[in-house]
Amino acid sequence: MSLTNTRTSYGWVAIALHWISAVGVIALYLLGERLEEAEDRAAKLVAMTNHVSVGMLLFTFLAARLIWTATQPAPAPLERKRPLQIAAKAIQGLFLLMILVQIVTGPLVIWSNARGIAIFDWGMIPSPFPAKVPWLHEAAEVAHKVAPNVLWPLLALHVLGALKHVVIDRDATLKRMLWPTR
């Protein structure tokens, strides 16, 4: 069992980064919901700090995942019909694009107000903007709220595809993302 990918299997690093990213995306959604439901300013501030801080941590894991993916061999795809291969790649690509939209627009919402991003109590990432940029703030805020409306159906399709591989195809697609093989 290897840390690195092979032509037949994902390694432990790729598997861990995938599942950390999955848990992170769900956690960010739940923290975002808590933010929307906060009843007073103090609760909203705590929820915002947690949402933003976890988002910045997730960014580091997603960046590591992209770098790892770019430097590792991809396991050969299992046999499936060409239209399903295209659909799976399209869904995965759009899903990752929506995550990227969230990761880019989240910080822009804060920075465009000429504020830095506090990551828990660890430090601050200063805004690249010396003054407020209202049009950018509005655009980033809208994109950050709209992207999940596309992201969640794509996630559902991704999970349904994994279940199809387990229940209908009875192949090793999901197993490869759970445990490395020799």
From TrEMBL:
Its cofactor is heme b. Residues 10-178 form the Cytochrome b561 bacterial/Ni-hydrogenase domain. GO terms for molecular function: electron transfer activity; heme binding; metal ion binding. One of its GO terms (biological process) is respiratory electron transport chain. It is a multi-pass membrane protein. InterPro entries: Cyt_b561_bac/Ni-Hgenase (IPR011577), Cytochrome_b561_oxidase (IPR052168), Di-haem_cyt_TM (IPR016174). Keywords: Cell membrane, Electron transport, Heme, Iron, Membrane, Metal-binding, Transmembrane, Transmembrane helix, Transport. GO terms for cellular component: plasma membrane. The chain crosses the membrane at residues 12-31, 52-70, 90-111. SUPFAM superfamilies: Transmembrane di-heme cytochromes. Pfam families: Ni_hydr_CYTB (PF01292). Belongs to the cytochrome b561 family. This is Cytochrome b561 bacterial/Ni-hydrogenase domain-containing protein. It comes from Phenylobacterium kunshanense. The lineage of its organism: Bacteria, Pseudomonadati, Pseudomonadota, Alphaproteobacteria, Caulobacterales.
